[in-house]
């Protein structure tokens, strides 16, 4: 077969091009470790999501040093949790599943993008080097309000990120001869122990206590005040730990019927 | 429908060898297409794709 010299050049060049394509993708996969979203995540029945240990409570969890897992749920027409807060410079694995129809989980402007299929758990591991705010959208048409399906992904500076929660238990109403007990509980969702100064204020009474909360543990601080010292009427309380604050009002009233939410054991 | 060359004056028809055919213009055009293709690929992969960090990676 007689092949013209120029055609030989062209054939060779096309071969080089194909080899080049394969080489770049191999470099991406082997050299950079880039992966496609596959079916390595397990399956889950969409109607059992609420009972699931992970997706029943969509959240961010620390699983190791600089390693976090996000359990997220997509549904018509929202993402849970929203916003999702993760630290920068950490390995974050998103586990995403759907309650209803096919959605997607696309962190706008990045390659962090996966379909979210009911029954399947999509697993995506990424590391954000820079803190920033990202939009989260659904790119699979999923219904009438598909265009409104969005969420927020906040990548925070390592020092700013925590999984600390403050919960306060306080009575709504107390008898004038009773005691008001306000309990502030600090929960540390991270693995490393944290130091927090917990402040509980009620009327003129202030309780300030430094607590050390071990990883995955919680610590409580209780302020007890005699209702008689405050007198009848409404009294505001505030509890804070770090930059978290909770506040409320307790009423000292004669003949109150419901002594709800603890503090009634006086 | 008939061949155009046949209608021409036989004296003006030049016969050349297979390898003597030398379409430099076509070669230049194809070389240009090729260069464009390579640049587009480099841009698509290294700038558009790898530039949109983070990209899902395999965890060891
Ligand atoms: Cu959707």
From TrEMBL, chain A:
Residue ranges, compositional bias (Acidic residues): 255-266
InterPro entries assigned: Ba3_CcO_II_C, CcO_II-like_C, Copper_CuA, Cupredoxin, Ig-like_fold, NosZ/Cyto_c_oxidase_sub2
A GO CC term assigned to this protein in UniProt: membrane
Stretches for region Disordered: 228-266
Superkingdom: Archaea
Xref: Pfam families: COX2 (PF00116)
Record keywords: Copper, Membrane, Metal-binding, Transmembrane, Transmembrane helix
Name this polypeptide is given: Cytochrome c oxidase subunit 2
Species the sequence originates in: Natronobacterium haloterrestre
Source species taxonomy: Archaea, Methanobacteriati, Methanobacteriota, Stenosarchaea group, Halobacteria
UniProtKB/TrEMBL annotation, chain B:
Record keywords, A-Z: Membrane, Transmembrane, Transmembrane helix
Source organism, top-level taxon: Archaea
Listed transmembrane segments: 24-47
Protein name: Halocyanin HcpB
The organism of origin for this protein: Natronobacterium haloterrestre
Organism taxonomic ancestry: Archaea, Methanobacteriati, Methanobacteriota, Stenosarchaea group, Halobacteria
């Amino acid at each position: 077969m007689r092949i013209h010299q120029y055609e030989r050049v062209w054939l060779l060049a096309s071969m080089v091009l194909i080899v080049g394509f394969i080489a770049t993708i191999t470099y991406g996969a082997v050299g950079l470790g880039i992966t496609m979203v596959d079916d390595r995540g397990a399956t889950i029945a969409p109607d059992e999501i609420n009972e699931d240990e992970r997706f029943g409570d969509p959240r961010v969890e620390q699983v190791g040093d600089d390693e976090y897992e996000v359990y997220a749920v997509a549904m018509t027409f929202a993402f849970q949790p929203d916003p999702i807060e993760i630290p920068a410079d950490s390995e974050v694995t998103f586990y995403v599943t759907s309650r209803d129809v096919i959605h997607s989980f696309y962190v706008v402007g990045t390659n962090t993008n996966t379909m979210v299929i009911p029954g399947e758990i999509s697993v995506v591991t990424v590391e954000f080097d820079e803190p920033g705010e990202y939009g989260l959208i659904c790119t699979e048409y999923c219904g009438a309000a598909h265009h409104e399906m969005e969420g927020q992904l906040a990548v925070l500076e390592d020092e700013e990120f925590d999984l600390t929660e403050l919960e306060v238990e306080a009575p709504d109403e107390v008898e004038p001869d009773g005691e008001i007990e306000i309990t502030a509980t600090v929960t540390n969702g991270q693995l490393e122990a944290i130091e927090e100064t917990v402040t509980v204020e009620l009327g003129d009474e202030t309780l300030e206590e430094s607590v050390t909360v071990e990883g995955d543990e919680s610590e409580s601080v209780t302020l007890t005040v005699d209702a008689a010292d405050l007198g009848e009427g409404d009294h505001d309380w505030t509890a804070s730990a770090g930059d978290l604050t909770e506040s409320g009002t307790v009423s000292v009233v004669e003949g109150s019927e419901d002594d709800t939410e603890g503090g009634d054991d006086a | 429908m008939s061949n155009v060359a046949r209608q021409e004056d036989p004296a003006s028809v030049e016969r050349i060898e297979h390898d003597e055919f030398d379409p430099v213009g076509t070669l230049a055009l194809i070389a240009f297409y090729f260069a464009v293709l390579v640049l587009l690929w480099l841009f698509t992969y290294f700038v558009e794709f790898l530039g949109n960090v983070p990209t899902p990676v395999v965890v060891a």
